[in-house]
Design brief:
This protein is α/β, with parallel strands linked by helices and 332 residues long. The chain folds into two domains: 183 residues, Rossmann fold (3-Layer(aba) Sandwich); 123 residues, Rossmann fold. It is 42% helix and 17% strand. The protein is built from eleven helices and eleven strands. The strands form two sheets. A seven-stranded mixed beta sheet has the order 3-2-1-4-5-10-11, with helices on both faces. Strands 7-8-6-9 form a four-stranded parallel beta sheet, sandwiched between helices. Helix 7 links the parallel strand 7 and strand 8. The longest helix is centred in the middle third of the chain and has 22 residues. The mean pLDDT is 96. The structure holds 6-O-phosphono-beta-D-fructofuranose (F6P). 6-O-phosphono-beta-D-fructofuranose binds next to loops. The site of 6-O-phosphono-beta-D-fructofuranose (F6P) has 11 residues, from loops. GO terms for molecular function: 6-phosphofructokinase activity; AMP binding; ATP binding; fructose-6-phosphate binding; identical protein binding; metal ion binding; monosaccharide binding. It catalyses: beta-D-fructose 6-phosphate + ATP = beta-D-fructose 1,6-bisphosphate + ADP + H(+). InterPro entries: ATP_PFK (IPR022953), ATP_PFK_prok-type (IPR012003), PFKA_ATP_prok (IPR012828), Phosphofructokinase_CS (IPR015912), Phosphofructokinase_dom (IPR000023), PKF_sf (IPR035966).
Amino acid sequence: MDKIGVLTSGGDAPGMNAAVRAVTRKAIYEGLEIIGIKRGYTGVIESDFMVMDRGSVADIIHRGGTMLHSARCEEFRTEAGRKKAIEQLKYGGIEGLIVIGGDGSFKGAQLLSEESDIKVVGVPATIDNDIACTDYSIGYDTAMNTILDAINKIRDTATSHERTFVVETMGRHSGILTLMSGLAGGAESILVPEIDFSLEEVCEKLNHGYERGKLHSIILVAEGIEQDFTSSTDNNESQAFAIAEEISNRTGFETRVTVLGHLQRGGIPTAQDRILGSRLGAAAVDLLLEGETNKMVGVVHEEVKSFPIEESLTRSKDLNKEIYKLADILSL
Ligand code: F6P
């Protein structure tokens, strides 16, 4: 193998740059030519390629976002789109591809490796931390810290005004990011898609807190929860608003809503995410050099391991129910 490509795809995640840097410099160290592909699979189809040298990835390890830019590419979901992509990769002499992204990007990587002789390796990067076969994905730690910073600030104003705040966090269908941020942030209640909740219980807890002198509360709500309560609100954008209104109606407490949104995806990557990006990026190059394809790299109990992409897509990454219980106990 002489020439490989690297791209970042799907939702960006802090630490992606550290992974791009590691892939680039490890590839050069191993005597490979390395091509940076801009805008994920869109850039493959459009042949948006750039030759990378050591200097191309200078001064990026500490930056959020991704220097290669990212995209969610609809065309690549079609066979015709992937055919175009394969032609462009072949035309560019790219024999191996490293895909840094989440599960949607991994699905694309899997199809690409099955439909061509191009070797493909995935590096897990998503703030959601919902990819199986790795304890952590790149971006998760930074996002957790961003959420904590937000909770700290919200707590200040919640205390001053004696209000209940409903804070909505990202995570798509997973509640992992929300649960762990809620535990670390001391949230009074944590609502996640994996565990049924009753607003009645949330309100009871708030009332008990009030009886023992608590005048403010933080309820953390994962964006992926199912709406299973009644509300008069018309706001379908975020369930956090409906929940806040319902809590206010049932308890009489003054509520406010903060939807953290995309600020959770930005920011300076933490040490953990830079280290993870560096280790997994370099390991992905090693896998390609070993002739592997249709694999992903992950970190399990601090050790870098590899697994078939299929396994990471079909095994579910479960939310830790014991930690959920612990968060509940500690917030009583
Ligand atoms: O997968 C990362 C993520 O930030 C999810 O948490 C969120 O649901 C989604 O991406 C948002 O995607 P977009 O930036 O395309 O709106």
